[in-house]
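Give me the fold.
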Amino acid sequence: MDPRNAEPLMKLTWTDPVTGAHGYLVVHSLVSGIATGGTRMRAGCTIDEVADLARGMANKTATFNLPVGGAKGGLDFDPKDPRATGVLTRFCQFLRPWLEDSWVTAEDLGVPQHLVDDVFAQLGLEQSYHAAIHRSADPARTLRRVQAGLNAPVPGGQLLGDVIGGYGVAQACLGAANTWGWTVPETTVAIQGIGTMGGGAAWYLHEAGMKVVAVADAAGTLYAPDGLDVPTLLDLRDRFGEIDRDRLPTGIQLLPRESIVSTAADIFVPAAISYALRVDNENLVKAKVVVEAANAATTPEAEAALSARGVAVIPDFIANAGAAAWAWWLLLGEVGADPADSFLRLRTEMQAKVALVLAAWTLDRVPARLTALHLASQNRPTSDVASTTPALTIP
């Protein structure tokens, strides 16, 4: 069966008894009785959106040959509402049987990792990877390894668990530049979204010498054709990933939020909302390649149109897989608390996969998504959707 059309294993809708908000869990597949995928919160979130994201997680775990299936949680609620933490807590309490045994969740749009872990602590589950940790031969030791990895400091003052996803996106961008022989300092990039994923990508691209010419948050687009001072802008963010306009460095142009799509740059990174590129705006894209840092950032119709006019799209289940892949490498003991080891593993795997899909695109104009789906299908166990046998071994 074509994985793009496969029906999920389970769809569940929950109604919050306090606010009336709706929450969703979609389990697309179980492998060894377990699935992984974050929980997002945004006003307007739908079960169809969550199902798309769960399918993407299943493709992500298969592409990176992880021994788990894919799932996703979603809440139709404003994360800035003061009641948001209560909504998330009650959602997790309702889904506790899944969280105890079968679903490993983590941060996503509108839900930072520290909040997920705070909720899990309230529920007595210690950490959001609980469903995997409790399967290990020594859960206490595995928990210590996970916490050490998540909280390992990296240059720049951040924690490894907070930046690894953005680092992976940066490596996808650098992989595209390397594959096509672009000189990194002369390559330009525009990034939509400056939160955990987009901000991390901006930091590591800036550190690598690539010119970040535009970033966008909810308030608008910041543009500087000679390159933005990324570290300064990241220091000006609030807890919602929005930049304080009153303290901006000089020389930055303030543009409408939608202008990020049409920015003249070699690479465009949608790192904020799903379906950011649609049939009504894909024609504005000037980049040569789109690197999907956000889940389901491009609609199928928009991607087809982009491909038709020669714009390659690196799909989300490759470009933003860094956090998910790394979490499972950490759980399985394949990386530890040394950030250098984690960065090397992710850099090597991400750039190799980007080179693979772009080779097929360059030679035969095979869309990168099709090549990536073929890779996922090769790695996916034949019992991917149906397996419920707890055979996963975690040291």
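Residues 383-390 have pLDDT under 50 and may be disordered.
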